[in-house]
Amino acid sequence: MTNSKQGASQHYAVCPHDCPSTCALQVEKLDSQRIGRIHGSKHNDYTDGVICAKVARYAERVHHPERLSTPLKRVGDKGVGLAAFEPISWDEALDTIAERFQAITDEQGAEAIWPYFYAGTMGWAQRGAAHRLRHALGYSGQKETICIAIAQAGWKAGFGEVRGVDAREIEQSELILVWGGNPVHTQINVMTHIAKARKRGAKLVVIDPYETPTAKQADLHIKLRPGTDGALASAMMHQILADDLEDKDYLDKHTDFNAELREHLSTRTPEWAANITGLSVDEIIEFARLYGRTQRSFIRVGYGFSRSRNGASNMHAVCCLPALTGAWQYPGGGALYSNSGLYRDLDRSPLHGLELLNPKVRMLDMSRIGPVLTGDPRDLGEGPPVKALFIQNTNPMAVAPESAKVREGFERDDLFVVVHEQMMTETAAMADIVLPATTFLEHDDIYTASGHTYLQVSKAIIEPYADCRSNHWVVCELAKRLGVQHPLFEVEALELVDQALAKGGLPSADEIHQQQGLDCALDFDTAHFLNGFGHADKRFHFKADWVALGDSEGRLPSLPDHAPLIDNADDDHPFRLVTAPARTFLNSTFTETPGSQRKEKKPRVLLHPRDARGIGVVEDDILCMGNDHGQVRVHVSLFEGVQPGVVIVEGIWPNSAFIGGQGINTLTSAEPAAPAGGAVFHDTRVWLKAG
Ligand SMILES: Nc1nc2c(c(=O)[nH]1)N[C@H]1C(S)=C(S)[C@@H](COP(=O)(O)OP(=O)(O)OC[C@H]3O[C@@H](n4cnc5c(=O)[nH]c(N)nc54)[C@H](O)[C@@H]3O)O[C@H]1N2
Ligand SMILES: Nc1nc2c(c(=O)[nH]1)N[C@H]1C(S)=C(S)[C@@H](COP(=O)(O)OP(=O)(O)OC[C@H]3O[C@@H](n4cnc5c(=O)[nH]c(N)nc54)[C@H](O)[C@@H]3O)O[C@H]1N2
Ligand code: SF4
Ligand SMILES: [Mo]
Q1: Nearest CA to 645 among 589, 577, 560, 565?
Q2: Model pTM?
């Protein structure tokens, strides 16, 4: 803590949001209840003093006039919002929940209750609270598929474990590929490190279906059709081999490269890929040569291009590139998707309550909450219908696919819903009981990162607002009322963190907080997999074993290729839709803050002028987009930075922000991606018409 001029003090904290950057923050504390500006910490060399605008303006959110302040019971209709609720005491709220959960357990069994959470806070103690309750009581399990499942499977197929090169090494790269991600919107710190490399002459290539603000800054933008990255990467490998640019020694020593693969890739020509990707043959060859001739090339792999039915296979194909050129051997060379595997020493068992887990309990797929709540037998099997939801840190009414089904499920009269939230989200508005939650500025937690290598501990800076309580506190109180007697529910959150740290021989939470983060970066040879990849044979796998990763149906090709599984355009649905993140929202969070609302204005579809002429719409007209799942109406924004036939809608706006009240996830599918599930948010065919 240091004092600034105005008498306010500066405090270290960690951004809890679902963002790969996990920034180290400097929070200006005005008094015991209020904060001022938030800045990026200069002490942390990954954050390097830079954070996004939405978190810099966090005072707008933590002190939002509509922040939930007290437990609420719904007395009016679902979906109305605050006017349909009346305040109740914590005791009444918790007693009501415990009674209902007990009654449902007695009648239908514990699996009829589904604790449902995601990464609204990334802190392990608060985020894992729902797991601790679930495991203690045998409630239904949750397959965590909504974000990383597809990307992770694709990366693991090649590397065998989830880590990559330290992003601080980007500074030493000669060529940076931002592949299927938009860091200007989604993880601004990547741009800080890219800027350092570019000062030294490095080139930036962005591979994305539309000209994002990241693509605008690039030396080369590869504007491919969505869902075709496997074709592009395969053709690049074809060209690299044709030009003799592969690193033969590296391939022999560190990979499973063989004659079968060489033969396979000889048929994946730039002409073949041009047809699939919509790129020109010259573009593909030029890009392949640029990549093949550069030793210190760094691929910053995004999540975006994996959100497709063939996403895991596309991810694996891209992962093959640095293995082919041997880029891993050089400083600033290789790739990074996520460093989550670095934190193995943090023992998750106390944080997730794993010692209480009964592996026989059924698992429900969170991305399929619509089908689950509407009783789809593919999800429920022989098990009971879901009769109660306990929701923390997520807003499925807005963010989950097939949202018409999600709504239908939440509207069920026989479904008892508890939502623990900071704001009256669309999901909270469907609840029977709403509980007010603290923010990261009001509770303690530990954070790993995906974009960097620090383990960080953040502590409360201000007092909890009004009657707000942390996830951990709520779960402890419920456990007590439901007859659970276990030490996990009798200690403070940071004590659980200390247990998790101690089991792995790590310093205490206090020590990590004191030093503002523990750098878990690996030495060069290990980080670059020069001591071996994560598979048993220590090699990089060009041949993916999808069965081992859960693909029992053999849907994905084992060699890098284009898997034609996507929701291809057809005569009835001639367009492909990508639903990318907005800059000043974070998923559905910040859609309520005035600063973000001013910047984003209203939902828009980015439409190529040629397509607009074909449909007969002009700038700011209303366009209706539809498919088998439903229809969405949205204003047109003419945009040249996309291939005709591809349309983009940025941001997970509230459904109510759209004309007619159907949000963007009305159109996205809950079909689980291969090999092991995952939501296919950017793999959607649609028809378009004026009005
Ligand atoms: N401002 C902001 N920041 C965020 C978020 C947010 O909503 N807003 N969300 C957070 C979360 S939860 C996550 S997981 C991360 C995600 O961050 P990213 O890794 O950036 O992934 P996505 O947001 O899914 O997609 C980003 C880009 O992928 C592109 N894309 C879509 N389909 C394809 C394809 O087939 N091929 C290629 N090459 N590109 C494709 C989209 O056009 C888009 O520009 O960001 C986090 N940060
Ligand atoms: N169309 C489309 N849909 C998408 C995506 C897309 O790219 N396109 N991206 C998908 C992805 S990658 C993801 S990860 C999901 C994310 O979707 P969500 O998990 O719903 O993410 P958020 O909108 O950030 O919602 C988190 C909620 O948690 C609450 N929260 C924050 N901290 C706490 C806390 O400490 N306690 C409690 N109780 N609540 C808290 C916030 O107030 C917020 O309402 O959305 C997915 N949906
Ligand atoms: S860039 Fe991401 S981690 Fe950093 S402050 Fe913004 S939301 Fe938080
Ligand atoms: Mo995500």
Answers
A1: 577
A2: 0.98
